[in-house]
Amino acid sequence: MERFVKSKTMVFPREIIVGHNTTTQIAELCDRIGRGKTVLIVDDKKTKKLSGDEIFKILKKADYDVKEKTVSAPTVGEVNRLIQFAHKQNINLLLGVGGGTVIDVTKLAAFELSKPFISVPTSAAHDGIASPRASLKHSKGSVSKTAVSPLAILADTKIINKAPYRMLASGCADVISNISAVMDWELAYRLKGEEYSSHSAVLAKTAAQLLIENAEDIRVNTEESSWYGVKAMIVSGVAMSVAGNTRPASGSEHMFSHMLDHLGPGIMLKGKKYKKPMHGEQCGVGAIMMVYLHGGDWEKVRDALKKIGAPTTSTELGVSKKKIVEALVRAQEIRPERYSILGETGLTNDAAKRLAKITGVI
């Protein structure tokens, strides 16, 4: 009889604190985690003023030895500089206080240092606030890297609600796109025998459904909107921890988004300033089209995005029709090893045009 040797590691946040004015609980959270008294706050110029300085004062008052490092971009150079600084200061615990850039740089540095980190989001533009993956920029777009899940998450909806609403709408669109990601995963499981986790898939779909069902309540200048968004993004991040990969939250719609990044920035809109699409916005538009290809309820996805205020067309996204079609045709080039509804060869130009027109994207 063959010996059973299968094993799997899943790392989850130990504590998740979400709500109004939760920043005041940061010292007690660090006490409970108990990883040492030398703490490094990582922020950027904006989030330092928004939350970093307050956290610094609270921890100092609680007798922590607090260091601070400001980062400016999600690059390998910034990660390496942070690692060197943390080494010199003998840091016990890192706090990523900011948006996607700050948290991604912090989680990668924490991974390389084998140190725990706390995710303290000041905006909710995507599900990276809780996921074990980080995105770094390079000359040809962005690349996803293995990092570490946060040991804890502290999300202050009072602060997150101060961020531009567009960021929250983009984050919600990113989570809603889990619908097409899970469909792709199920297809790869059925046709290619890829490893599949029903528990992870349920979590990812639950996060998306939470936003779809409450789409009418997610609107500008309401702290409750931030509450819905952050909760869903955390559940989506945990789904990836369960899976041990990004499958439950990243499929053909993410390939489409990353190809748009590769093809270059958006367009200059008439009478408006230059607009660069956000990652979640692109994924939301991609999800509409990919759910259509799967034969799913793509109109439900589109309508939820509309209610939230996320783009559903190329014009709203700020991307030319030509670039939408090219991104659809070439999307499979991003991760050819990851099977999706796009198949192994991708879409033809005519099929891509037809898809985008039927779904109203162009």
Structural overview:
With 362 residues, the chain is of the alpha/beta class. The protein folds into 2 domains: 15-160, Rossmann fold, CATH 3.40.50; 165-358, Up-down Bundle (Dehydroquinate synthase-like, alpha domain), CATH 1.20.1090. It is built from 15 helices and 8 strands. The protein has helices at 26-33, 45-61, 76-89, 100-113, 157-160, 165-176, 178-192, 198-213, 223-243, 252-263, 279-294, 298-308, 314-317, 321-330, 349-358; strands at 15-19, 38-43, 65-70, 93-98, 117-121, 133-138, 141-146, 152-156. The strands form 2 sheets. Strands 1-8-5-4-2-3 form a 6-stranded parallel sheet, with helices on both faces. The longest helix is centred in the middle third of the chain and has 21 residues, at 223-243. It is globular and about 65 Å long. The mean pLDDT is 93.
Question: Structural class, from secondary structure content?
Answer: alpha/beta
C-alpha geometry: globular
- Overall average residue pLDDT: 93
Strand content: 5-15%
Largest sheet: 6 strands, parallel
CATH superfamily of the largest domain: Dehydroquinate synthase-like - alpha domain
Order the strands across the largest sheet as they lie in space. Answer: 1-8-5-4-2-3
Q: Could you list the spans in which at least 5 consecutive residues all have pLDDT below 50?
A: none
According to CATH, what is the topology of the largest domain?
A: Dehydroquinate synthase-like, alpha domain
Rg of Cα set: 20 Å
| Name of the CATH first level of the largest domain | Mainly Alpha
Helical coverage, percent range: 40-55%
